[in-house]
Amino acid sequence: MDYDPLESVNANLNIGKLKAVCSTYMEDCYGDMKDALNEGLSTDRFMVEWNIRQEANEEPPLPDKATHIVTTGMNDQGFPYIKDYHLETNADVVAIPIPTDIQKIKKGDLSLAIDWRAKTGELFKTLFANGYVAVGIAREQGEDIQNYLLKKQE
User: Fold this and answer.
1) Its pTM surpasses 0.85
2) What percent of the chain is modeled with pLDDT above 70?
3) How far, rounded to the nearest angstrom, does the alpha carbon of residue 23 sit from its chain's CA centroid?
4) Helix, strand or coil, per DSSP, at residue 132
5) Are 112 and 105 in contact (CB under 8 A)?
6) Among 17, 41, 49, 39, which residue's Cα sits nearest to residue 137?
7) Which domain holds residue 28?
């Protein structure tokens, strides 16, 4: 199954509640789409998997154990943005932020939504290539961003 990794509701459902994992980032999976949800952004997707042999009670990593390699801020419109990031890490768990409402950002500032897509795409592709797997979500009520938790596989 696939979904847009910037859609926080889908991230919470698939990675958070259904305990899927992801190590595959597909660029522009469906090409140029003109529907309200996708227009203006490339149709990048996470391909998620469920490990049916995995321990049912295995917990995702704790958010406070994650290394943050991305710095975010808020712009003048009140939208979160990525200020800076670095791709060099050997941390066991890495937090990668996404906005909690990419559609609101897209309607208010399409170039910022495109920037989120480009930067998170680079981060996910690089981390997946280096053996990381998205295994959890950390979300705080009322926050403008949430974090994917990526764990280094042995």
Assistant:
1) yes
2) 90
3) 11
4) strand
5) yes
6) 17
7) 2-152
Q: Tell me, what DSSP letter sits at residue 151?
A: E
- C-beta of residue 88 within 8 angstroms of C-beta of residue 77: no
CA 80 to chain centre: 14
Whole-angstrom distance, CA of residue 35 vs CA of residue 41: 11
Least confident range of 27-31, 49-53, 140-144: 49-53
Strand 21-26, strand 70-74: pairing: unpaired
**Counted domains in the chain:** 1
Nearest to 121 by CA among 59, 68, 42: 42
**Distance between CA atoms of 11 and 23, rounded to whole angstroms?**
14
Residue 101, CA distances (Å) to 40, 87, 106, 141, 147 in order: 15, 25, 9, 13, 13
**Which token pair is 152?**
């280094």
Assigned token pair, 72: 């975010």
Q: How far apart are CA 18 and CA 30, in angstroms?
A: 24
- How far from chain centre, in Å, is Cα 43? 14
